[in-house]
Amino acid sequence: MTFLEQYDAIDASQPAQKMALFFKYVRGEPDTRFSELRANRPIFVTPAATMVTRFADVQEVLSRARIFSVRLYAPKMDPSVGPFMLARDETEINRRDKSIMTAMLSMNDLPRIQKTVEDLAEAAIANCNGRIELI
Known about the structure:
The chain is mainly alpha-helical. It has one domain. It contains 7 helices and 2 strands. It has helices at 3-9, 15-28, 30-40, 55-63, 74-81, 92-104, 110-126, and strands spanning 43-45, 50-52. Strands 1-2 form a two-stranded antiparallel sheet. α2 packs across α3. It starts with a helix and ends in a 9-residue tail after the last helix.
């Protein structure tokens, strides 16, 4: 039985069971699980959140801040990090911090930065001993 078959077999009145199954599979077989989601349910709705698994869909979500807002995260993030640009769509804080990043990073540097991040991520995954924490 596939992950989605198992997930769908759990009654909607049991959200904790659905999430436990999801986390079990994501922790154990993330490549297989996300492959299955991309192929069969690229926009995966859970009791806790909605997951977007295809690149084009992720780009669309990230480009439509008025529809896919991060406003709900501000009250959760502020106590630990203060007003942070990633929890402030289309605000002065967000625009200011983006302009600082744009001034500091040349678009010509992006391919080199992307390659560096890719190399670092691959090394971290290769040396994670089966466990990795993502933020």
